[in-house]
Design a protein that fits this description.
The complex is a heterodimer.
Chain A lengths: L2 E4 L4 E4 L4 E3 L1 E4 L5 E7 L5 E7 L5 E4 L2 E4 L9 E3 L8 E10 L3 E5 L3 E6 L1
Parallel strand pairs in A: 2-12
Antiparallel strand pairs in A: 1-4, 3-9, 5-6, 5-10, 7-8, 8-9, 10-11, 10-12
Chain B lengths: L3 E4 L2 E4 L4 E8 L5 E7 L6 E7 L2 E5 L6 E7 L2 E7 L7 E8 L7 E2 L3 E5 L1
Parallel strand pairs in B: 2-11
Antiparallel strand pairs in B: 1-3, 3-8, 4-5, 4-9, 5-6, 7-8, 9-10, 9-11
The chains are: A mainly beta, B mainly beta.
Chain lengths: ~110, ~110
C-alpha cells in the first residue's frame, strides 16, 4: 500500500540553524512527492514538489530531493527563520482518475530568535 | 487567499444540531475533497468528488453527509455529531489530470 512516515516533532531550532525533516514513503507505482506547510490557524499550502526520481523541489530556501533508492524525500533548509515556524507535512500522490494523497502525520517546527 | 474558500472559519455546535460546512473554488478544478485533521493524527481523507460524482467515501459515519451540486461548490452536512468529531475540516480541490491540491483554510469545528 501507500504510506508516508515523517519524523515526529516538535523540532526546536534557533534562528539561522540548519533544518532537516526526514520523510520516507512506501508506494505502489511511481508517486509524486510533496511537502506542504501549515501556518497556525491556516490550511495547508504547497511548499514544493517532485514528480519523478532524482527531481529536486525547491521553494523559499527549502529543498527536497526525490530519492527512489532510499524511498525518501527529506526537507532541508540551510538557515531557518522565526517565520518558518509551522507544521510541515510530507505527502505522496498517486493519480488514477483523481488525485489521491497520502499524508504523513506532520512535524511541528519551532524556530526561536 | 488560496482560491479555495471555506465558511465558516469556526463553528461550535451541540450534539443535536444540524449545520453545514461550505467550500467554494473558482480555480477551474474538477475534483474536490474533504479532509479531517485531528490533533496528532494524519490527515484523514473523508470524501472525494470527481466531476461532481462521489468517487470515494472512506468509511465515514453517516452523520457526515457530503454534497457537490456543481464543480465549484462542496458542502459537508453535519447532524448528531459526537465530541470526538471536533477537528479542523479541510476542503481541497485539484484538476483530475494534474498533481497537487489547493487547500482552503479550514473550518475549526467544536462539538459540545
Amino acid at each position: 500500500g501507500n504510506s508516508v512516515t515523517q519524523m515526529e516533532g516538535p523540532v526546536t531550532l534557533s534562528e539561522e540553524a540548519f533544518l532537516t525533516i526526514n520523510c520516507t514513503y512506501t508506494a505502489t507505482g511511481y508517486p509524486s512527492l510533496f511537502w506542504y506547510v501549515q501556518y497556525p490557524g491556516e490550511g495547508l499550502q504547497l511548499l514544493l514538489k517532485a514528480t519523478k526520481a532524482d527531481d529536486k523541489g525547491s521553494n523559499k530556501g527549502f529543498e527536497a530531493t526525490y530519492r527512489k533508492e532510499t524511498t525518501s524525500f527529506h526537507l532541508e533548509k540551510g538557515s531557518v527563520q522565526v517565520s518558518d515556524s509551522a507544521v510541515y507535512f510530507c505527502a505522496l500522490s498517486t493519480k488514477n482518475n483523481f488525485n489521491k494523497f497520502y499524508f504523513g502525520s506532520g512535524t511541528k517546527l519551532n524556530v526561536k530568535p | 487567499e488560496t482560491g479555495v474558500t471555506q465558511t465558516p472559519r469556526h463553528l461550535v455546535m451541540g450534539m443535536t444540531n444540524k449545520k453545514s460546512l461550505k467550500c467554494e473554488q473558482h480555480l477551474g478544478h474538477n475534483a474536490m475533497y474533504w479532509y479531517k485533521q485531528s490533533a496528532k493524527k494524519p490527515l484523514e481523507l473523508m470524501f472525494v468528488y470527481s466531476l461532481e460524482e462521489r468517487v470515494e467515501n472512506n468509511s465515514v459515519p453517516s452523520r457526515f453527509s457530503p454534497e457537490c451540486p456543481n464543480s465549484s461548490h462542496l458542502f459537508l452536512h453535519l447532524h448528531t455529531l459526537q465530541p470526538e468529531d471536533s477537528a479542523l475540516y479541510l476542503c481541497a480541490s485539484s484538476h483530475r489530470d494534474s498533481y497537487g491540491y489547493t487547500f482552503g483554510s479550514g473550518t475549526r469545528l467544536t462539538v459540545v
